[in-house]
Batch of 3 targets.
Target 1
Amino acid sequence: MKPVLSLNKKHLQNFIRLAQARLKGRWALIGGSLLPLLGKEIRATSDIDFIGLGENEAKQNLSLMEIAEELKLPIETVNQAGALFLSRISDYENALILLSKTENCQIYRPNFLLYLKLKLPRLTESDQKDILAYYEYCSEQKEKTPHKEIERLFAKELKDADPARAKKLTALLSRLR
Amino acid sequence: MQSIKTLRIHLGLSQKDLAERARVSVAFLRLVENRKGNPSLAVLDKIGATLGMELQWKPTPPRWGALTHWGVPLQQVKEKSVQSITSVGEFLHELKRALLFFEESSDPFSREHEAVLATVWAITSHYPSYLKEEVLQTHLSRLSADYKPSLGRMIKLKRIALAHLCKKL
């Protein structure tokens, strides 16, 4: 099926290039659009989850919209809703990995555990695919996989999960072991 | 069947006249007009043809209220009694029925149509195993072509739909 709108590696590279040139401060790219940027084009995605990590960053919304427009993308493509979920994770600052850097702007990606924490609450079919693809990427990069913490996280999630969600979680965990 | 009676009177026909022309009994026609008979489609077609009408299948409106409960991003629809949707299969069936409804719609760019298309888009993107049918490809192709100017709004609607859907699917 031809996707309605699908962001590819080139879109994402151009987005990061313009973001570095126009934005100031610390930013994080999370979500499904991180994968095509890292060379894992596993599915169509139409959202760039790009989050400002400080108060000054939040004031640069207009610049973000201009970047999307310049790339001929709908301005709604860039989405900051993930900021709320990120802010609820207490130790997220320690889980960020530098993706690219200029004098004024640093862009980060989450480590695998943080990515998992952001994806697990929703856990759609595409989230499951994304988690596995990101796990593969992080393994290829020889990043340490915190297996014990992953097990703990799943155990906590499984505690309150209904049978359908528990089934999804168990299947996913077995793929990560 | 009130329309048969209304049209017959409008055309100046008595029940006897119409019964004769349609080759049914007066008693049977009376029952049909009073919604008491159980006419076959063939008989209804015959009576209709006599009155200059033809039978048509027309989709009934989807259960908007119930679809909204499942995540179709519409404002709460006030319905007298919302017949709820109790399973994923029923929801997907109703969603496909909504797409069919728009095939006949005079306003292809209605708010409801946008909401249904955005929901289908959310499901095909995030739950691809639920909707695989070829018919949906046509609808989504239409989304990318006809809705290009409002693609930004569709992205927003898709997000809203997904936020609800992930609690149900």
Target 2
Amino acid sequence: MLKPILLVEDNPNDLELTLIALEKSKLANEVVVVRDGAEALDFLNCNGIFNKRATGNPAVVLLDLKLPKIDGLEVLSQIRSSAKLQSIPVVMLTSSKEEQDLLRSYQLGVNAYVVKPVDFGEFIKAISDLGIFWAVLNEPPPGSIRANRRS
Amino acid sequence: MNAIHRTGFSPAAACDKEPIHIPGSIQPHGMLIAFTSDNFLVDQISANCASFTGVKPEDVVGKPLSAVLGDEGAQWLIAEIANQNIIARPVYLGALKMPNGSFFDVMVHAWQGLVILEFEMISREKAADFRLLYPLITKFVSTLQDANEIESMCAIAAREIKNVTQFGRVLVYSFDHQGHGHVLAEAIDTGYHSYFNQRFPASDIPQQARAMYVANRVRLIANANYTPARLVPGTHSVTGEAIDLTYASLRSVSPVHLQYMRNMGTLASMSVSIVVKGRLWGLISCHNTEPREVSFETRSTCEQLGQILALHIDAHQERTESAYRLELRGMLVSLLGALSQSQNFVDNFSMVSHDLLRLAGASGAALIFEGKTTLFGATPPEADVYELAQWLATQMTGEVFNTDALSAVYAGGSAMKDVASGILALSISRHHKHYLIWFRPEVIRTIDWAGNPHLKSGQDGAFQALTPRQSFELWSETVVATSKPWRQSEIDAALEFRTAILGVVLERAEAMAELADELGRANKELESFSYSVSHDLRSPMRHIVGFTDLLLEMEAGRLSEKGTRFLRNIKESARFAGKLVDDLLSFSQMGRSALRTSEVDLNALVENSVSKLQSEITGRHIVWNIAPLPPICADPVFMQMAVQNLISNAVKYTSSRETAVISISARESERETVFEFKDNGVGFSMEYAHKLFGVFQRLHRMEDFEGTGIGLANVKRIVERHGGWVSALGEIDKGATFSFSVPRNLPTEEGDAHVKADTTR
């Protein structure tokens, strides 16, 4: 069973393009979409609307940097400081290659940092590379489950 | 005519040492008795007492006063003394009849434990009558009040004193700061030589005489050919010392002075001190060719007149000085107001240069500030002023320096004497060589001396040094390379101005600090602005490109050819806008992020850049001439960007060439390493070379060569942050050569602050 990919993205355009890119990369994983940092943490901790979901961590979290309520860096920091969540691979997807964001992300233990390219072709390639590496190639830690795609 | 620099004459040293206060004798026109007030016994008496009283001095020494004065005279005197407060300044006791029937005016004063009686023979029986003094002084005061100038006051005094004393010549002169006397007024009888406006050198009056003139305000020498009457005995019975006659009017004067008088042709002289604020300001000097005695009441009248004159001079000087200071203050206020007008310190000075010159009464000024020399009015050339400032830096220990004869102290002074014989310099910074210098031009003056002052000294030996000068003939001296002297009030105003300027300079430093703060804030704002831009402006571009791509892909079959082209245009434009944002961001980042320097292998950077350009290179024929490049110390990431830009430019602008030739080389000097990127592309006109490195500057049409116009601006910024320079050489259709340098002593890491500071200037 493949673990899901958790996509945290608030911008509908980016969300649609990212989903298309993931689709085009022909990954078999389910993609769970949440729209802000708070929702992402709820999903990961099985809280709030996600209190009924089957337990288990996603294969990878694709995390936008700028998010409503709780921003990407804060979400990352909470993941890394939680014993249950800290081993989840996190890929920062962002509009900017601002040095301070990049540095902060690495300090917080991000696994990859991707500046979304303007060119859509390049974007598809970047997303599928990531998906293949983190969702398919990586050995899932024990206790992972496959979640239903929600969107 | 004699042209010399004014130096000041060395006073005759021997004269200065002569103990004129203890001559051991008196002038013979009177008699002197000294005694101690506790026993009224004659301690010392002048030897000429015999001629006045008939008693021999040796017969009366140690005896009561009555031995000389008779019982009646002695009783009267002792009673008078008991009634008086006897002080150093002689007091008039009245007229005394001697046992032999002659009459005497009696003056008494006490000095160093002795009571000194002076007797002057008179023809009248009664005491001196001072009633005439009152109307005379009233008239004198009212005439003085009508005078507006010191010279005319002195002229009035000269006339009045001549009237009172009937001397043949009365001079009133003042002493300058070097002690030379300048004759300001004169009243003379026919046949007398005029000394008006002439100078008497300082050495004419020795130092100790000047001190005595302050204490004893009137001195009479009735006959220069007198034979002194010595005191008997020569020394005091108790102290064993000669009696100090500082306050005695009969004091015998130096034989040198008597010779001086004879040389001058005056057998009688009297001088009245003009003492202003406790200082000997000048003298009223009376001369007569024939001997002349002056009674005590006349001398007193002259002393009164002298004091009144001194008071009027004092008041006049105070008035003039305070009016002048008020004017200076007004100028100072307007100057300071102007100096705080705008941020530019030096410009502010230019706006008020007229007042600046007026403040110090100068005809030129120079401001040497922050390495820049600014001239106002008539000054030496800039280079000379700069040299002068360098010299001042070695000379000035205080805040101010002034001279009215620059060439006498500064070797470069002669060349600039026309405009700068006098300078008044202010140091206007505590830490830097910043100066404000005022200039005064040369004023060639002729000074008329009453006799050549240079002849007096220079004769051989101490014996000769005590010889007074022989000649009082007019001797003209031309003084060159000298300006009008700087007045104390001008120097004071300059100093006050300095304090204020220091305030302005300080304020300026504060303003700079504030500006730096503001810049820092603005920079922060800009940073957050570009942060938002990078996130928010980039996203919509990406979306447009993404959706257009999808549309082109999904609807390819259903779109007309035109529709497809339009969609492609939309996509291209959005993609280009996105790239523009990216480039701008990297440009702004370049200015903000710190340099992280390490050793960088340029060969690797070039190789890396070429491989990144693979897609552009494919299908083209390019000859690469890449020489081995030396390692440098630089920020590898930034340096990579710079090299990438230059190589991609070379590739781009040679695209029309069948065979592109791109050469990269380096040369090292002691200070820097210079890299050169040469191509045989389309080149550019040197006319626009200066625009090449600006942001958004493009020299080619978009259709010909795509680009955002930021690449070379980036290269320049990167290189300059490393402390190097960029340059471009080109010719249309003949290729281009871009060079940049990197200093060899670029500090690593910790030295970054320095590089950063340089770029923020």
Target 3
Amino acid sequence: MARCHDELIQLYVDGALDPTERALVSAHMSQCEACRAKAMLYKGLCWDLEHPEPEPVPEALQAVSDRVMAKWEEAQARSRAKARWQELPAMWAAANPALGAVSGTVNAAASQMGKAAAPAGKALLKRLTRLLWKRQGGR
Amino acid sequence: MDQDQQIVDQCHRGQSAGFASLLLRYQERVYRRAYSFVHNREDALDITQEVFIKTIDGIQSFTPGRPLWPWLRRITTNVSLNFLRGRPALLSLDDPESPQVFAGGEDPAETALVSWRLEEVQQAMGRLPPLHRIAVVLRHQEGLGYVEIARAMDLPLGTVKTYLFRARAALRSELERREVLGSGEVS
């Protein structure tokens, strides 16, 4: 049996031929007992491949799960800390209603701080605090 | 609201219960899929861990309402392929130099015949070159089309067809030799 026939039979069984090719292979198989037998084999193989015995799950999977869960908690803690940094300048401004003139600066700074690393955020906040202090007349 | 959507919503709100549900629902499936790709327990566990660590970041931008499994399957496939690419010896398309000897030789009981056959098939799968095996798993266990497999494996369509053809021919030949499948030749 030629290799090309084998490939066509596989594609036929796998339903991967277009209608014309399928009709041609089908017509050939009606005449060829060897190809029919081979198609039956591939059909059986495909069934076996589609119904695997479930692989037993090792107990160590629970430890994997615990490690991943710990990573999730770490990520959430980082995310909450970042959110607090982003809220801080806005909270500052809200606590100082007389400083409406600089609220734009505060909001822009909040946006920058969301992107910046923590040390850069702290430095920015320090500058902002000084600015607000001066605007309030250094009281 | 279906369970996937509930999981995604809870994760978006940062609720640990959501991510715990995701793990509970999918950890075995991800492990089994990884195992079917690499046929090694420890490697499959490592891949499972990496898949879910990637999920922690990815879930935040995951669109609620979409099913989770196709996304997790894609991550599992990518992580498995990267794992194999990091081990060129494993990725060889040649047959292993020292093929493992199949256990057996005794007549299986009639009631265990199907189970025996499926086990033989799985063992034969374990001897396929990994890329061939991944293509077969995606086709016959995940039901992906040829184009989808090519996309998932980042390979040309023709290469995927060749891998599938060679894999199935090798499996047929191996299983015929072991008399798991009847001979296709007619007298």
